[in-house]
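not sure who needs this but someone in the group chat was asking about LexA DNA binding domain protein from Serratia odorifera DSM 4582 so here u go. i didnt clean anything up, its just raw.
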Amino acid sequence: MKELTERQSQVLTFVRKFMRDNGSAPTQREIADAIGCSSANAAMLLLKALERKGALTIRTGRSRGIVLNDSTSAPDFDTWLQSQAVPIEVDCGCVTAEVLLYWVKKAYSDGARAGAGEVEVAK
């Protein structure tokens, strides 16, 4: 990654912390407020500079579409779920797929990670 300016480092640090604390990326407005800019467009210009330098990727057309490109950050839940090579099978009859997905997503956003065969069911 190319060297960042002080302002770009400030934005990247904020985005990392926000994603760690909230489980999703901040909006342009949240970034602007955090760094003391009156314009969300200023935040977008800084994000585009960070993207050009390889620090992050901006998914156009998606709200909160910022993905960090370093190995220390976890992918967003949808990206992680799509990358799973082994299907997630559930056959307990006591929970709907929607309820299960809600709790898996919550655990993921809280920092829980599991690979294939690593999930245990507690009664």
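also The first strand starts at residue 56 and ends at 58. if thats useful
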